[in-house]
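Sanity check record (used in CI):
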Amino acid sequence: MINDLLTWFVAAVKQEPTLAALQARVFPDVAPEQTPNPCMIYQFIENEGEPVLDAGAATHGTLAFQVRIYGDSRREANAFRESIRLKFQGMTPQAIGGGWKIEGSAWGDLPDTYEKETKDYGALGVVEFHVAR
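Expected output for DUF3168 domain-containing protein:
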């Protein structure tokens, strides 16, 4: 289930017109050194209990990904985070492959970051997917 969702999630980010600048810069865990901004890093989260997340039906499970979008400015990083939130928050049921479907989703913002050494602005969030067969 995780691999089917992950494949779908990355493809959905890369295909979203409002995220076109991220298409070639979506990475698991860490971006390669010298990757230009904007870029997005994602990580699977085993258990997510953020109280800010919307409620959703989880018949087979809830899987969550933390996303971090890096930009050259706070405005750029936050704009990409907002596009991701709009794309994935409160989704209607949708097939994702492997016989799985998303029954709903939720979004939670996390604190912003700034990395002095690289001068990168980070905008973070968590997206939960409620998945069933």
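Residues 74-88 form the longest helix (15 residues). If this sentence no longer matches the regenerated tokens, the check is flagged for review.
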